[in-house]
Structures are given as C-alpha cells and as structure tokens.
Design goal:
Length: 380
C-alpha cells in the first residue's frame, strides 16, 4: 500500500442542483470548500491525488488546493473526467481510488478499508449502504414494472477502489456510467462490496449541506434562549431631574428616581438579557451597593449586559421592550429610541412599544413608569 495508491477526485461538475452560482466543489462547508474536505480526507491514504476541475476554474482550484494535488480540466460527463484523470496517473501506482468531491466528508477510514481489500487481492471495491426505501422499477408511462427485493439492493458510495489496470480496461471498453464499478462489472470482473458510511453522503441539494454541517459538528445545533425582565421607578420629587428613558434624554419630562439613571426600559432589557443567559438579574450583576453603577446610564448597563451574555456564549437575536405609563408619548421618538438601544447593544434588532393602563395602578395615576422586556439569545 505504501506509495502505491493514487486518487481521482471528480470535481468538474457544475452543481446545478445545489444552485450556488459557483461549481459545487468550491462551495464552502465551515472553514473549507467541499473539494478541500475531500482532499484532506484522502490525503493520508493516497500519495498522488488528481482533481478534475470544471473548465475555466482550474486556477481557483489550484489556489485553494495548493501544490499537494494535480488539478486537471474535467470532461463533459463524469466518466470523461475520470478517463482524463486516469490517463494522467503515473505508472508506478497500483491502486486507484475514484471519489466524488460531492462526498466531501467520506472519512479517511473508509478509504483505508477500500484499499485494504485491494491489498488483500480484490480488483474492485465499493462501499455500500442498505436501502431504507423500497425501490420500484417504473416504465416510461409511470407504471410500476417491477419491485426488486430490497434485501438484495444497496446504495453505492465513493471512494471506490480499483487496481489501476482493471480501471483502465473498464474505461477503454465502455463509455458513460455514473459509477466506475458499473464499467468494471461490464468487463466481468467481480466487484466486492464493503460497509459504507453515513458520512460519505453525496452533497447534491441545499438540505444536504445542513446534514453535512451536522456531521462536522454533531453538537452544533443552535440553542435559543428567551428571557424576560421588568422594571419600575417612581417619578422624582426633584423637578430638575431630567427623564432618561430608552437611552434617550427627555428634557421636558421629570426624571425617575433610581440608583442609576432610572431608565426602566434599558433596565428591563438588561434583566431580560441576563435571564435569557441564566446569569441572574440586574441586582445580582449590578448591585445597588456597587458605587460603580451610581448614576450609570441605561446605555452603559446595556453594553455591560451584552458583554456578559456574549461571554456566556450567546448573541442577541432580538430584544423587545414595552414602556408602561401615561407620558412621555413614545411614538414620536420610537425610531430614535430603537436606534439608541440598538447602538448600545452593538446593532442588535430592537423593538420599542408603549401602553398606558387606563388610569389604573401607579403608572395610570402618573406616579411612575414601568417597562417589560423580552430578549431572545442564540448560541454563538
Ligand atoms: N463530475 C465531474 N465531471 C463531470 C460531472 C461531474 O467530475 N463532467 C463530478 C462532480 O463534480 C461531483 C461528482 O462528479 O463531485 C458527482 O456528480 P454530481 O453529484 O452530479 O455533481 P454535479 O454534476 O456537480 O451536480 P449537478 O448534477 O447537480 O449539476
Ligand atoms: Mg451531475
């Protein structure tokens, strides 16, 4: 096996079904393109790797793959691409793996199992999976012709492995086939099946990309966390205290009492953020005893709350706050309030609404203001 294995990675397709506006093999999956993943997985097994690129994209392929592989121009059909690549492999190689870049996450161990069989004397080896669905053979008018026995059917994956001489003969003898083993079967050479691997799925449609991401990061499912917060303060007896509300100053309105600037809207949002990340509440994070927060602005406390939820591994999906009271009228300055809160939260999506309480309660009697907020966090 040492220095005897070459690999062809078929990557010259357009990727029409994925519809990414660039060849499928150049589509990124996390940190690497599909073709880079495929190369990385085969590199420990194959000492020589040929990648077929779509005409016109050779330089881009070379740029992402570097000198570790040979990039050649593919053909019109997949089997053309394989034939051209095969002809470029030097004679010293005894075994050839034929792989689809579209099966980017086929693990190295699968390629190794294929080669092990060739070393043991097999001439052609394919990884297969049992079928989940019953398969029907259907005629051109849409009528079932036949139902093959599912227990004898298998779905075929790549990398497929061949002795170089058998693969050359197969490609000389026949034209097109979507898999190389079919050409070898046509020669009458026995093709051995081995257990395939779910990770060798063929990335064809958009939904396959999410499946591939799950394979790369099994725990990467996004976590959503919702939190709720309220705050209330009485209007100050100090008629000169200006109102701070929703990160704005309201010069014609009397301010709210409070250890800080008394901005109930900002404080309710801070509570909601901290609650969503299960980090306690405003009091436990910015205690009244802490002189640092005496006179702290709502914007400052929002920024600090954001820093805490970020440190806990979350980003803000959105926050929503409702201000409860008779005045000030929020609607005329709603856009301003949204922009100011959002700026304090590094551009988070914010909504601000308001309501009066029909003369009921301390807000209805004009004694103070309250606010209620929700925050939705998403794991970073
Ligand atoms: N392939 C190739 N040369 C071709 C056609 C296809 O090398 N002329 C490669 C593809 O890049 C892919 C593999 O063969 O890695 C399997 O083909 P498929 O999954 O059908 O990919 P695409 O042809 O790119 O996709 P689509 O059919 O959706 O356009
Ligand atoms: Mg195709």
């Amino acid at each position: 096996m040492i220095n005897k294995t070459a690999a062809i990675i078929a990557a010259a397709g357009a990727g029409n079904r994925l519809g990414a506006n660039l060849p499928k093999a150049l589509v990124k999956l996390l940190d690497k393109t599909l073709v880079e993943h495929a190369v990385a997985n085969l590199a420990p097994i194959a000492q020589h790797i040929v990648v077929t690129a779509p005409s016109g994209f050779e330089d881009e392929f070379k740029k992402v793959l570097g000198d570790q592989v040979t990039v050649i121009t593919g053909g019109v059909l997949r089997s053309d691409s394989i034939r051209i690549a095969l002809a470029s492999i030097p004679n010293q190689y005894e075994y050839v793996l034929v792989h689809d870049a579209a099966r980017s996450l086929a693990p190295t161990a699968l390629a190794k199992s294929v080669i092990d069989q060739l070393v043991n004397g097999e001439q052609a080896v394919v990884p297969v999976l049992d079928l989940v669905d019953t398969i029907k053979e259907v005629d051109a008018s849409g009528y079932v012709r036949n139902t093959p026995d599912r227990s004898s059917l298998r779905a075929v994956q790549t990398p497929q492995g061949f002795t170089k001489s058998v693969l050359e003969r197969a490609h000389q003898a026949s034209d097109d086939a979507t898999d190389d083993a079919a050409l070898v079967e046509a020669l009458g050479v026995k093709v051995k099946t081995i257990a395939g691997d779910e990770r060798a799925l063929k990335i064809t449609n958009k939904s396959d990309l999410s499946r591939a991401l799950e394979i790369l990061h099994p725990d990467s499912k996004v976590k959503l966390r919702v939190g709720i917060g309220t705050d209330a303060h009485a209007f100050s007896t100090d008629k000169n205290r200006k109102l701070s509300l929703a990160c704005l100053t309201w010069s014609d309105e009397i301010g709210l009492d409070g250890h800080s600037d008394g901005d109930v809207a900002s404080h309710a949002i801070c509570d909601a953020l901290l609650a969503a990340a299960n980090l306690g509440d405003l009091g436990s994070n910015f205690g009244v005893a802490d002189a640092k927060y005496a006179g702290a602005s709502g914007a400052q406390m929002l920024a600090e709350s954001l820093a805490k939820v970020k440190a806990a591994g979350f980003n803000i999906e959105n926050v929503s706050v409702q201000i409860v009271g008779n005045r000030p009228k929020i609607a005329p300055r709603r856009a301003e309030a949204i922009a100011a809160i959002s700026a304090a939260l590094s551009g988070a999506a914010v909504s601000v609404s308001a309501t009066s309480t029909d003369g009921l309660g301390f807000t209805g009697e004009g004694k103070g203001l309250s606010a209620i907020a929700t925050a939705l966090l998403v794991s970073a």
